[in-house]
Each structure stands twice: as C-alpha cells, then as structure tokens.
Design brief:
Blueprint lengths: L1 H32 L3 H4 L14 H9 L2 H32 L3 H13 L4 H14 L6 H26 L2 H9 L4 H30 L2 H6 L8 H5 L11 H34 L3
Helix pairs in contact: 1-12, 3-12, 4-7, 4-9, 5-7, 7-9, 7-12, 8-9, 9-12
Length: 277
C-alpha cells in the first residue's frame, strides 16, 4: 500500500516538474512582453514586472507589419487546412474500410514520411516550385503545407473512421440507402468532430511553420508571421527584446487557444487509431 502511494506521489511530482518545464518559456515570454526597457536591462530580473507597460506592443506594431504578416499566415493556414482535410477524408475512409495491401502500404508511407527532416526535402520542393513559378507565392507555400500536413491528417482520420461501427452502414444499406446516401447521412455526421479536429491541427501546424516560409518567400509583402518575428533581431544578433516578446506572445495566442480546444479530440483520435478492431 505504501509502495503504491509513494509511486503515485512520484508520478505526480514528475508530471508537475514536466509541466513547469513546459510552461517556463511561455510564462517568461509573457513577463518580458510587459516589462519596460529599464527592467529588461536589469541584472536582477523578476517574474512579475514592477511597472507593467504596453509600450512593447505599440513598438512592435510600429516597427514591423504584423497585421499583414498575420493575414498571410491566416490565409495560408486556412487554405492548407481545408485542402488537406478535403483530400485526406476520402483517402482515410478507403484505408480504414478496405484493408488491402495497398492500404497497408499507404499506412506505412504515412509513418515513414514523418521521419524525413525538413532539410532533406526542402531542395526538391524548391526546385519543383521554381519550375512551376511558385517561388515567393502563397499558393506555392500552401501546396507545401498541404503535402506536409497530409500524412498526419490521414493518420488521425483513419482512427476516427475505424471508430465508426460498420454495422451502422450495413443497417443503412438494409434500409435501402445507397452508398453515397450512407456516407453523407450516416458516416459523415459521426466523422464531423474528427474532421474538425484534424483541420484545426493542420491549421496550427501551418500557422506556426517557419522553415518553409523562410526559404520560399522572398519579399516582405508575402512573408508570414513567424518569419517577420525574426526581423526584431538585428544584423549583429542583438534582439529588440521587448517588442520581440510582445509580438511572439500575440503570435502564440491563436495556437494555444485552438490547441486547448482540440487536445482531447487529438488524443482520442490517436488512441482510437492505435486500437485494433
């Protein structure tokens, strides 16, 4: 009994330490965003700003086109999420319902594709987009985001499709519903939460992406928010710390809010996909 209690206390302590480790960068970012230049240069930094100020936020918007960059990020993320879900949903249904060798091979591709580092694929992608004349184009960036998000979207949606009992589709067929009517009236409503969660996950991935946008977008009017944040760092590597923290805090908020909404659905989709029926 004592061993069980002590083990549980140890688990909670380890979990608490891990949460503190994860939360520390964000909490320090928030604290820095509201500090005055004098406090930022202090040799004895504090967690809570002594004299909170919004000057860093005003300066951030004055120095860089944050609204335009946020608009570019929003457009690219929304388009990538919508296209990825439209492609992944029918493919996931086929992979989940027809477990052929081809479906197993596709599942293997989904897993293996996640092991490729970004540096390995950026040169081929750059050459392809150059031939298509889509360098420095949000359309080209959206294409890259779709390709990058598609494997994980497939993996999530396959788990959701497998969670829908085939008996429901068979009962609809017995009642005289055709294949299309069954998919639209029976399967699609049950998949709706999974589709929304997958779309939001693809949106978060595209919203936070930096490397592809840095390489593929050249002019300031096309750059996304993560790329514009690097402009707060000077040529000598000296960061304009206050405005940078303020801009980074604003850029992080959408991801935190969306992930807080969908984290349970993401976990459920992963666990469902891991269970053999």
């Amino acid at each position: 009994m004592r061993t069980s209690t002590s083990g549980r206390v140890g688990q909670y302590a380890a979990l608490l330490a891990y949460l503190v480790f994860l939360a520390f960068p964000f909490l320090w970012l928030v604290s820095t965003a509201f500090k005055s230049p004098r406090e930022l240069g202090s040799l004895h930094p504090t967690w809570i700003p002594r004299d909170p100020t919004l000057d860093n936020f005003r300066q951030a918007f004055d120095e860089q086109p944050l609204l335009r960059a946020a608009g570019n990020s929003l457009l690219a993320a929304l388009a990538a999420a919508a296209i990825a879900v439209l492609i992944a949903t029918p493919l996931a249904y086929v992979m989940a319902r027809h477990r052929t060798r081809l479906a197993k091979a596709a599942t293997g591709w989904v897993v293996v594709s996640q092991a490729f580092p970004l540096v390995l694929v950026i040169i081929p992608l750059f050459l392809v987009l150059k031939n298509l004349r889509l360098i420095n184009s949000l359309v080209g960036l959206v294409m890259v985001y779709v390709v990058w998000a598609l494997p994980f979207a497939l993996w999530m949606l396959v788990g959701y499709v497998r969670a829908v009992p085939t008996e429901l589709e068979e009962a609809a067929a017995v009642d005289g519903a055709g294949r299309l009517r069954t998919l639209v009236s029976v399967t699609a409503p049950l998949l709706a939460p999974g589709i929304v969660a997958t779309a939001l996950f693809a949106f978060i991935t595209a919203w936070n992406e930096f490397f592809f946008a840095l390489v593929l977008l050249k002019t300031a009017d096309k750059q996304t928010l993560p790329v514009v944040l690097t402009h707060f760092i000077g040529a000598e590597g000296v960061a304009d710390l206050g405005p940078l923290a303020a801009a980074a805090f604003l850029a992080t908020l959408p991801s935190l809010v969306i992930f807080a909404v969908i984290q349970r659905r993401i976990t459920g989709g992963m666990l469902t996909g891991a269970v053999k029926s």
